[in-house]
Amino acid sequence: MGVIIFYFIFHPLTMVVYWYEFNSEPLTFTSFFNVLNHRIEHSFSYRMLDMSFIFMLMGGITGLIFGLYKLNNKKLNKHIQLLNNDLLKLINQGESQFVELKSSVRYDFKQQTTNLDLEVIIAKTIVGFMNAKGGKLIIGVNDDGEILGLEKDFKTLKQQNTDGFEQKIYEIISKYIGKEFCFYCTVYFHQLAKKTICVVAIDKVAEPVYLSKGKDTIFYIRTGNSTKPLTIKEAFHYIKMEKEA
């Protein structure tokens, strides 16, 4: 298609432009079509073979570039679709040792207002996964698997988009867990049912991880489909068993 467009369209039009550039005749509707007819015949003559080859080459290169872009874009869309399908499967399976569903980070759907205490719950869940075997925290989906999206949460942020939301996640980790633990979390976003949801992929951490809130320091562990606090004695035995395992 690139070769055809450049050879049969751009080539003759370029010849028309050159003709007006080197001749003093004014451009009118009638003269344009007269010159165009003449230039078309001249464009496809044997004398213009070299010029024709250049335009065909340009068309081929342009078509190749657009073709590769479309192919890569198609592969990317297919990859995104596969990720979305996998994510839907996780959501439909419900909460487990490796998956936690949260409606929001700051917006309280029951009170219909901003609730900063929800940030602590997010931090607690992340700590629990870090102390266990890692997992995925999916935000924008309620416990029943209904996709709510992040739009309500966005409105509670200064930067009301995915960049602001990602920044808030890392702020929560830094505030309640520690800046160094941000490196164990990866935040990415998906579009499901025309709504934006967030997935926080959390890695297991070799050392014990604690949640700090005020003067309290709490050790949480992910067990089954819930996150539970351990007493000092329980935490000590758990950490000891993990080191011996």
UniProtKB/TrEMBL annotation:
The chain crosses the membrane at residues 5-22, 51-69. InterPro entries: Schlafen_AlbA_2_dom (IPR007421), Schlafen_AlbA_2_dom_sf (IPR038461). Residues 95-230 form the Schlafen AlbA-2 domain. The keyword Membrane applies. It comes from the Bacteria. Keywords: Membrane, Transmembrane, Transmembrane helix. The keyword Transmembrane helix applies. Pfam families: SLFN_AlbA_2. PANTHER family: GLPR-RELATED TRANSCRIPTIONAL REPRESSOR, SCHLAFEN ALBA-2 DOMAIN-CONTAINING PROTEIN. This is Schlafen AlbA-2 domain-containing protein. It comes from Lutibacter profundi.
